[in-house]
Every structure is written in C-alpha cells, then in structure tokens.
C-alpha cells in the first residue's frame, strides 16, 4: 500500500488518478453540506442563514487542526518520496495525540466565549439564537474531526487516496439519514431543526473515525510505516511537525476567519441577503471540490517531487495541474449558466429567493477558473515546505480582501452580487504573490 511515486513523468491521467479519490471524498463531504442546506431551507430563512454563519464559524476553529494535518501531510509526503517509510507512523500517532489535546482546549474556549463573541457581531437576535443552537452540539465533532484529518494526511501523503472515497461515502450516508431523522423529527425521532443538523454532522464524524480505525488494523502495513512498537516521542516530533504546520494552522485559520467576517458583514445587509449567500456558498463549495482536490494533489506531488530530487519538474507539474483545473471549472459551469433557477430550486422553493440569487450565482461562476489556478499555484508554495512564506502571502492577500469587503458591504452597502466580487480580489492577489515566489523564491534550498 502506498509507496514512492514517479512524479517527474506525470501525465494528466496519472495526476487525476491521485486527485480523483480526494475529489470523491470532498464531493461526498460537500454533498452533506448541500443536503443539510436544502433541508434547512425548508425549515426557515433564519435557519438557512444561521447555518451558514455557524458552519463557517465551526470550520474556522477546525482549520487549526486541518492546518496541522496539512503540515503533517507535507512531511509524510517528503518521507514517502525519500523512502523513509518507517518514520511516517510516528508523525501520524504523535500528531493525533497533539490534536486531541488541542481539541480539548478549543472545545472549552468555544463553549465559554462563543456567545459573547457572536452577540457582539450579529444584528439579528433570531440568527444569533439559531447559530448558538447549532454550535452547542456541533463543537463536539472537533474531537473526531481531529483524528480524521490525521488519518487523511497519512493516506494523501503516501498517495494512497482510494480509501478516502469509501470513508466519505459512509460519512455521507450516515449524515443524510440522521439529517432526515433529526431535522424534521421523522420516524419518532425528536424534531430538532438546526440542532439536528449539527448532531447528525457529529454522528457522521464518529462513523468516519470508527471506519478508519478498522481499516488501519486490517489493511495497513503497520510495520512498514513504523506504527508497530510506537512510543510517544515527547515534544520532539511534535515540534518538528509544528515547524511546518504552525504557519499553515494560522494560514487556514485566518483564511476562513476572513470568510466568516464576510458572512457577518452580509448579515448586516439583512436576513434575506444572508440566506442567499448561504445558498451561493453551498454551490460555490460544491464547484470548488475539483479545485480543492487538485490543490491537495499539487501539495503532495510537489513535496514528493522535491523529495525525489526533481526540483526542475515542479513548475511544469504545477502548470499541468492548473490546465486541468481550468478545464474542469469550465465544464462544471456550463449547466448552471443555462439553468440557474433549476439549480437554485434545490435549496429553496421560495421563488423570490431564487430570482434574487441568480445575479450572485453568475458572479460566483465566472471566478471559478481564476480561483482554480490561484489555489493550485498557492498550494505549490506550501508543498515546497516553506509554509511561513505561504502564511505571509495569505496575510498580505487577506488584508486586501478584508478591506475590499469593508468597502463594498459596510461602507457602500452594495447589492449582494457586487459584494461577492471579493472572490475576484482574493484570487488575483494570492495568484500574483504565489507566482512571483515560485519564480523567484528560494524554495529550492528548503530542507524539511
């Protein structure tokens, strides 16, 4: 299972072979969000808008764990490329121990301070109450999500991503079933509304952990990857992972926090605008799936390629993946361009809400090819191991991005579709900064 890969001879089909299982995993996970949004769209406008704010707020917290796992994935990919397989197990297991400790800290911080923070940001008492109802249950998922991301880091870092598809399918089925039972109170279950959506998400994460543990002990070569005879290494290995991960943790946290601020700003425009933005966000994330899959593939393949000593092949590989991203985005956008209302009707039966969502949908669709290239090139920066540089590039971009949000949403109170052009600003600057670094930076000398 897993092993070294010949990155310097990667065709489009071989790149997609690595990316496809990641794509399928993300597809299933985002279908969970789509179905949850569609269900809540039948509950009420407040619940639809609050689920966006609560969901992004939770993901902001979760991104700290995800950033750590991404750094671990880079390190795993490098060891995999160097054929030092026996060092991979200690990265995974020490990482799980660290993340569970961090999850406990984040759990208590969230429970103690979320109401104070959110009440200062929101205008609507109804949206605030619904958001807190969601978070009260959803935050329990941080423990199981922390374990899941380290398992995923192992499978992606060793380029054995097929199993992620099965895991994602299990999560999706569990989540959809419990969404149906708990949101609406079907088959004798309590009618929990937005709290039911939160609880079903936690249950799906528990099912994922159980699946990974069973699969690991039955099919992974524990001896090859250094899982047998494991002992906790203290802070040594964790410090090594953090040297790469810390910048990624802050990078992901800041990136999602800025997006949360975007939705907070939209909430000030009104509950209708917030509900529309949740619909657009759900479609946007669905169409971002192949982009995220290719970006994660770029991260891993760049790390493996450098580990093989093929640094001159990095940029040709990045451009090849970028072309794939553009082609997939254009292909995915065609249907929505011609049938926008049909797509929007999946989320709500309110014709006024559907008609009002169309302009923002078009703004979102046009940016997809640009955001694809930007994300792929940016992930190449992280793949080199220079995660502090990636953090700096992200911070510079987000300063411009947040200023633009303030200008369009708060200062000018522009129509919603104009507010969504903030994604163009993000794509433009993160691409420019990343491209300049990959062309002129010192990433070739980086050792990890």
Q: In words, what does this structure look like?
A:
This protein has 448 residues and is mainly α. 81% of the residues lie in helices and 0% in strands. It contains 16 helices and no strands. The chain has helices spanning 12-41, 45-81, 88-121, 125-138, 141-157, 162-184, 194-219, 235-267, 271-287, 289-307, 314-338, 340-344, 351-383, 387-411, 416-419, 422-440. It is globular, with a radius of gyration of 21 Å. It starts with 11 loop residues before the first helix and ends in an 8-residue tail after the last helix. Residues 1-8 have low confidence and may be disordered.
What can be said about this structure in brief?
This protein is mainly α and 448 residues long.
Gyration radius from CA atoms, angstroms: 21 Å
- Number of helices, where a helix is a run of at least 4 consecutive DSSP H or I residues: 16
Q: Which stretches are poorly predicted, pLDDT < 50 over at least 5 residues?
A: 1-8
Query: Strand fraction band?
Result: under 5%
Element pattern in H and E = HHHHHHHHHHHHHHHH
Let me know the largest β-sheet.
Answer: none
State the share of residues found in helices, binned by percent: over 70%
Oligomer: single chain
Distance between the termini: 24 Å
The tally of beta strands, per DSSP, is 0
């Amino acid at each position: 299972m897993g092993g070294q890969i010949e990155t310097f001879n990667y065709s489009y089909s071989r790149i997609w072979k690595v990316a496809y299982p990641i794509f399928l995993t993300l597809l299933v996970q985002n279908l969970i969000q789509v179905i949850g949004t569609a269900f809540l769209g039948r509950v009420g406008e407040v619940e639809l808008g609050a689920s966006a704010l609560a969901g992004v707020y939770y993901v902001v917290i979760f991104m700290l764990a995800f950033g750590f796992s991404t750094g671990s994935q880079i390190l795993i990919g490098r060891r995999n490329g160097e054929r030092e397989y026996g060092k991979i197990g200690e990265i995974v297991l020490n990482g799980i121990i660290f993340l569970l400790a961090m999850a406990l800290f984040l759990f208590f911080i969230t429970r103690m301070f979320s109401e104070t923070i959110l009440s200062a940001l929101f205008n609507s008492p109804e949206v605030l109450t619904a958001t807190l109802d969601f978070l009260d249950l959803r935050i329990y998922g941080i423990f199981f999500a922390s374990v899941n991301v380290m398992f995923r880091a192992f499978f992606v870092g060793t380029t054995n991503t097929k199993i992620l598809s099965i895991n994602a399918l299990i999560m999706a089925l569990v989540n959809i079933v419990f969404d149906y039972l708990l949101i609406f109170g079907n088959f004798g279950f309590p009618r929990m509304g937005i709290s039911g959506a939160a609880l079903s998400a936690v249950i799906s994460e528990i099912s994922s952990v159980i699946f990974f543990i069973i699969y690991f002990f039955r099919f992974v070569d524990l001896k090859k990857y250094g899982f047998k005879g494991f002992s906790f290494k203290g802070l040594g290995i964790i410090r090594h992972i953090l040297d790469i991960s810390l910048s990624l943790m802050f990078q992901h946290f800041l990136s999602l926090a800025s997006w949360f601020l975007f939705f907070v700003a939209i909430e000030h425009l009104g509950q209708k605008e917030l509900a529309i933005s949740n619909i657009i966000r759900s479609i946007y994330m669905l169409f971002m799936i192949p982009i995220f899959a290719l970006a994660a593939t770029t991260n891993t393949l760049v790390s493996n390629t450098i580990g093989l000593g093929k640094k001159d092949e990095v940029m040709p590989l990045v451009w090849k993946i970028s072309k794939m991203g553009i082609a997939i985005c254009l292909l995915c956008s065609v249907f929505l361009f011609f049938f926008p209302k049909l797509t929007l009707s999946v989320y709500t039966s309110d014709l006024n809400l559907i008609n009002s969502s169309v302009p923002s949908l078009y703004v979102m669709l046009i940016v997809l090819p640009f955001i694809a290239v930007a994300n792929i090139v940016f992930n190449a920066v992280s793949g080199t191991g220079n995660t502090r540089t990636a953090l700096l590039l992200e911070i510079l971009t987000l300063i411009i991005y947040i200023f633009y949000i303030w200008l369009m949403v708060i200062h000018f109170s522009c129509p919603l579709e104009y507010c969504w052009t903030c994604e163009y600003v993000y794509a433009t600057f993160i691409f420019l900064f990343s491209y300049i670094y990959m062309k002129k930076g010192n990433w070739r000398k980086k050792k990890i």
